[in-house]
Design goal:
ATP Synthase, domain 1; two-stranded antiparallel sheet; 9 strands
Length: 74
Amino acid sequence: MRVSILEPKKVVWQGNSKKVILPAREGEMCVLDFHQPFVVRLGKGKIISSGGHIPVRDGIAFMRSNTLNIFIQS
């Protein structure tokens, strides 16, 4: 899947990943290729993907058409 991790003023990471782990407010969430569309609020934790471990305080993630867009504050 195509992954974009964005902060308000910069692109943190863009690339392809087969698996991304998100720190959702309800608990850790694993996203794989061709996951169903969703929108989820992120809490404090780390995003784990092919781009490494990215710390996050707050954010939102949405999946659509095998593209995962993640907007964060770190």
